[in-house]
Amino acid sequence: MRLAIIACANGLGHVRRVVAISSFMLKNGFGGMIDAYLPRSHLDCLNKWPECLYFVNHKQVHIHDFNYPKPSICKTSMIGELDWMTIDLPPLSKYDVVWSDNILQVLEQRDDAIITGSFLWHEVLEKHAEEKGQLAFIKAQRELLSVHPTMVGNEYFAMPEVVKHTNFIPVGLYRYSLLMREKRNRGILISCGLGGEEENVTKEAIQRIIDEQISPPDLLFVEPRLLPEKYPDWIKKAEFSDEMYHYCAAVCIRPGIGTISDALISHNMIFAFSRSDSVEMTHNSRVLEHLNVGEQSKGPFHAYISAIQFVDNPEKLNNQLLKTSHLRTDGVFATAKVVFNRS
Question: What secondary structure does DSSP assign to 155-178, as a single string?
């Protein structure tokens, strides 16, 4: 059989998800050919990840450099400034199964496509659609949902329109880490992701932490592009590996579903921050508070102060371990099963 995979390029999470699920399928009996339409620049960002290397070099996988929305390179971009209307999809009729991560336009060619994701872009963009000239995009996206497509997303964080307007299949968190050993460290992570929405305020927070010498009980991991040229030795560049997340006990993040999954799989408390008009991030923060595994902070600096207080409290650390241990974490397996069953 022939499988087409099309992944959104805004942030690394979409590409990371399809790589993890595809690699799982290939390791567990999938014998078909895969045409993967995704940004090569994102694969380059993930080139130290074993699953990515396995995927890229697999004989059943053919990579096509595909970027939507534009521009789509590994740097920050404000989502409201991207071109959401222009898309150059390949012909999809030749494929037995089409799987799209967060791109609804595939439904114009294949209303039987499988969609993955826990939100829809028009939900995120709608608040400022008129001023950004995106009303036509919002309307077109909602019309595509009239076919009630199959959509696989996280059961905890799926946004309202996903659940209401698709044939929604809930799955657990996406487990990318296989580390199971006991947590002994109390590191803290500060990151704002590739979305770029909170980059400046997070850089300011890092500089304030350095200037005021607010050192953590253990190490502070910081997204490298947020660091100044000189910084103290209790700060380390974050490499976002399984080992780094396992070393941490708390994370201060812009709460995208990929980073949320990494943090909760590693039993970290989440101190979330985002712009007040960020619909997806606000939704995810509310879910974290509802699950009692995270909380909304005023900004990255306040998130860091709260994280220090948290990692200094053994009772809270143990409670977080207990609560996160009972979360559903079968996202990769359950999504692969949906694709397998369609093939």
Answer: TTT--HHHHHHSEEEEE-------
Residue 322 has φ and ψ, to the nearest 5°, of: -65, -50
CB count within 10 Å of CB 38 equals 24
Q: Where in the chain is the domain with CATH 3.40.50.2000?
A: 187-325
Residue 229's CB is within 10 A of a number of other CB atoms, namely 4
- Torsional sign, CA 140, 145, 149, 151: positive
3-state SS, 188-235, equals EEEECCCCCCCHHHHHHHHHHHHHCCCCCCCCEEECHHHCCCCCCCCE
Residue of 320, 317, 315, 304 lying closest to 221 (CA atoms): 304
- Topology adopted by domain 2-172+330-342: Rossmann fold (3.40.50)
User: Cβ contacts of residue 134 below 8 Å, gap of 6+?
Assistant: 80, 84, 85, 125, 128
Residues in the chain: 343
Q: Tell me the three state secondary structure of residue 29.
A: coil
Q: Which residues of 90-125 are buried (b: 16+ CB within 10 A; e: fewer)?
A: eebeebebbbbbbbbbbbeebeebbbbbbbbbbbbb
- Give the up-direction half-sphere exposure of residue 81: CA atoms within 13 A in the CB hemisphere: 8
- Positive or negative, the CA dihedral 98, 117, 9, 270 is negative
Q: Which residue has the tokens 């698709």?
A: 166
What's the pLDDT tens digit per position in 104-128? 999 999 999 999 999 999 988 887 7
- Residue 8 is classified by DSSP as -
d(CA 64, CA 50): 20
CATH of segment(s) 187-325: 3.40.50.2000
Q: How do residues 51-74 score in pLDDT, each as one tens digit? A: 999 999 999 999 999 999 976 444
pTM: 0.92
